[in-house]
Amino acid sequence: MPDNRPSSTYRVQVRPDFPLPSTIEIVDYLADLGVSHLYSAPLLTAAPGSEHGYDVVDHSSVNPALGGEEALLGLSRALREAGLGLVVDIVPNHAGIAVPHLNPTWWDILRRGQKSDFAHFYDIDWSRGRLLIPVLADSPDALDDLRAEDGELRYFDKRFPIADGTGDGTPREIHDRQHYELVNWTRGDTELNYRRFFAITDLAGLRVDDPEVFDATHSEILRWYREGIAQGIRVDHPDGLRDPAGYLARLREAAPDAWIVIEKILEPGEKLPAWPVDGSTGYDAMCLVNGVFVDTGTEAFFDTLDHHLTGVTTSWQDLVHQAKYAVATGSLAAELARLADLAPTVEDAPRALAELAACFPVYRSYLPAGSRYLAQARSEAGRRRPHLISALDQVTARLRNPADELAIRFQQFTGAVMAKGVEDNAFYRWTRFVARNEVGSDPARFGSTPDEFHEAAWERWQEWPGSMTSLATHDTKRGEDVRARLAVLAEVPGDWTEVVRRWVRFAPLPDPSLAHLIWQVTVGAWPISRERLQAYARKAAREAGTGTSWLHPDESFETALRQMVDRIYDDPALHREVADFAASITPPGWSNSLGQKLLQLSMPGVPDVYQGTELWDHSLVDPDNRRPVDFAERRALLNRIDDGWLPPVDATGAAKLLVTSRVLRLRRQRPELFTSYRPVYAEGRAGHHAVAFDRGGVVAVATRLPIGLSRHGSWGDTSLSLDGHSWTEVFTNTSYGGSRLPVAELLHTYPVALLVKE
Question: Which SMART domains match (predicted)?
Answer without folding.
Answer: Aamy
